[in-house]
Amino acid sequence: MAPETAPCRFLASLRGSSHIVLATDPNNSVMGVAAAIRDGVLFAYVSHIEVLPDYQGSGIGTELMQRLLRQLCDYYSIDLSCDEDLIPFYRRLNLIQACQ
To answer: How far apart are alpha carbons 90 and 45 in whole angstroms?
Structure first.
């Protein structure tokens, strides 16, 4: 994907999300985002969790996930997939049940 199209595709993906949580700084610049899609009945899927590198490790990702999960608490199943390097993050949130 060409670098100049990546932000447009990311924004289009967010527009298709059913739930979006943003973390902003005092100037209303976005520091992080978490998003999910759902079927409206039983299932939801966490499609995005992104925190800008300068803000990673400060608890923003954890707070975004906690807020998103509160919005999805009535769903029977909430799924996600992640890169291997993010497994420790999801484990700290007790979201990883089986990793192998």
So the answer is: 14
| C-alpha closest to that of 15 among 48, 39, 40, 41 | 48
Residues pairing with 78 in the sheet: 44
Is the pLDDT assigned to residue 99 strictly greater than 50?
Answer: no
| pTM, entire model | 0.82
Per-residue pLDDT, averaged over 57-86, amounts to: 92
C-alpha 49/C-alpha 82 separation (Å) is 10
**DSSP output for the chain:** --TTTHHHHHHHHHHT-SEEEEEE-TT--EEEEEEEEE-SSSEEEEEEEEE-GGGTTTTHHHHHHHHHHHHTTT-SEEEE---GGGHHHHHHTT--S---
Non-local (6+) Cβ contacts of 1 within 8 A are 9
